[in-house]
Amino acid sequence: MKKIIIVGGVAGGATAAARLRRLDEESQIVLFERGEYVSFANCGLPYYIGETIKDRSKLLVQTVEGMSKKFNLDIRNLTEVNKIDRENKTVEAKNLETGGSYKESYDVLILSPGAKPIFPPIPGVKEADNIFTLRNIPDTDKIKAYVDERRPKEAVVIGGGFIGLEMAENLVDRGVAITLVEMAKQVMAPLDYEMAAIVHRHLREKGINLILEDGVKAFEDNGNKIVLSSGKEINTDMTILSIGVKPENSLATDAGLEVGKRGGIKVNEYLQTSDPAIFALGDAIEVTDYITGQPTMIPLAGPANRQGRIVANNVYGKKEAYKGTLGTGIAKVFDLTVATTGNNEKVLSQKGIEYKVAHVHPASHAGYYPGAAPIALKLIFDENSGKLFGAQAVGTDGVDKRIDVIATAIKGNLTVHDLTEIELSYAPPFSSAKDPVNMVGYVASNMIYEEIETVQWHEIDQIIEEGGMLIDVRETIEREAGFIEGSINLPLEEIRDRLDEIPKDQTIYITCQVGLRGYLATRILTANGYKVKNLDGGWKTYSAVFNSDESA
């Protein structure tokens, strides 16, 4: 009979405990949880504050009493493990209610301490009582009580990640005017800039005062005034700090376990630490990037749950490998759905990996059926093999299933060519006969098979400045809604009859609304002896960045 100690519940630790019991009725399983709640819905916390979720009890996935009985576990909540003695295989635990400490032995130790919000030492932050972070149920209760009782009119959210944006939306739902401050030039780091620009426009349309490329210098007036690095001052009734998380690694480092450069506990493919008797999982560990094979930190609930199951299997000798984290994520941002999988351009560039990009802007379902909405879909791939590196999508409908299909394709080692052949369900209310996933596969496949050359949204202005010819093949009336300065209009239907107007002694660049007519024009001109490059994603992608007021 084994004695297994788990430090930390929620997604990873609770999953490991339940799986361990299913595998073995005899082992003694002790789960220590510093907080009051052993298993709760982290991702639902902002929506309880915003009152989309009205019943607080719905956030409690498992209660201590219920989980203890169901799985025959020794769950000790409100108890903090503050020391590991690896030599004697014991942990030191402190009961936070009584203050008493004691030692507990183990055969196997599982660490699932999670990650904690970064709380920087900004001047004035400690003097304020209206600055909050969101990690757990007590944090949620504090924020909701403050909103319920104080009824703030203005709030500042610092940080434009998933939690920051969800908190901004839910506070707006409570009638609070929001200023969102982000130090980077964009929100939502997993997106590339041109995709994030769609989100920026939507946030502003929803009344968010969005401040980018600026940080917080100080809090003044007991937190009621924020001074930014630029010198700008903002008055606020409350502030949500959401600038990221860092792994809870002190227990591991104090015990001499290896950690990575960013503080994540190092584990092998079986999720064992540098001590074979100690496993670790969840937001506290350094994982392998599924695309690059390099170490990274990706704090997501799905991988934590999967790791909990794998650790339990390996405690009983199954030798099941964790194959890395793909980083598939999704968020609701007011009316938009924003989803990503795999690597973005920024990460691939930093790693020195060559890639190609394809943008498409299809409708969520057949255009003739009511309610079709545009999806901005971006695919990143290897131009030689067609290997899929990642994808991003932004839209109001149908985003989730497209990213999920591509995430599945990546895990199945499919290529852009395979995307053209995936047979997906079709009926007019749900999709088109050629699904957006097929469409982006065709575009990428054409770039490889037909050697279609493209130019990106961030390159075209300089090309025009240097004398390049950009032909806009849309109808003249379409240009009234906006066009790229310096482009000339030559509608697709007229291009064959006006070839004499197009010089052959230079590369010709083509743009249209979303890229399709540009592709057709590219084929026509290439067949007539021209060297041509198509603007990937057309005016739709370009205007998302440079014409932020341009409506879809």
Structure in words:
With about 550 residues, this protein is an alpha/beta fold. Helices cover about 25% and strands about 25% of the residues. It is built from 15 helices and 33 strands. The strands form 9 sheets. The protein has a 5-stranded parallel beta sheet, with helices on one face. Helix 1 packs parallel to helix 8 and helix 6 crosses helix 15. The longest helix is centred in the middle third of the chain and has 15 residues.
The helical percent reads 25-40%
Note the overall shape: globular
Q: From the alpha carbons, calculate the radius of gyration and give it in angstroms.
A: 27 Å
**Strand-residue proportion:** 25-35%
Order of strands in the sheet with the most strands? 5-2-1-9-21
Which class do the helix and strand fractions yield? alpha/beta
Major sheet size, sense and barrel closure:
5 strands, parallel
Low-confidence stretches: none
The N- to C-terminal Cα distance equals: 63 Å
The residue-averaged pLDDT reads 96
Can you count the beta strands?
33
**Count of alpha/pi helices:** 15
Offer a quick outline of the entry.
With 552 residues, the protein is an alpha/beta fold. It is 27% helix and 26% strand. It contains 15 helices and 33 strands.
SSE order and pairing:
Layout: E1 3-7, H1 10-23, E2 28-33, E3 39-40, H2 45-49, E4 60-62, H3 64-71, E5 74-77, E6 79-85, E7 90-95, E8 101-105, E9 108-111, E10 115-117, E11 131-132, H4 137-150, E12 154-158, H5 162-173, E13 177-182, H6 193-205, E14 209-212, E15 216-220, E16 225-228, E17 233-235, E18 238-241, E19 245-247, H7 250-254, E20 265-266, E21 278-280, E22 285-288, E23 295-296, H8 301-315, E24 329-333, E25 336-342, H9 345-350, E26 356-360, E27 375-381, E28 388-395, H10 399-411, H11 416-419, H12 436-449, E29 453-455, H13 460-465, E30 469-472, E31 488-489, E32 508-511, H14 516-527, E33 532-535, H15 538-546
Parallel strand pairs: 1-2, 1-9, 2-5, 9-21, 11-18, 12-13, 12-18, 13-14, 20-22, 29-33, 30-31, 30-32, 32-33
Antiparallel strand pairs: 3-4, 6-7, 7-8, 10-19, 15-16, 16-17, 22-23, 24-25, 25-28, 26-27, 27-28
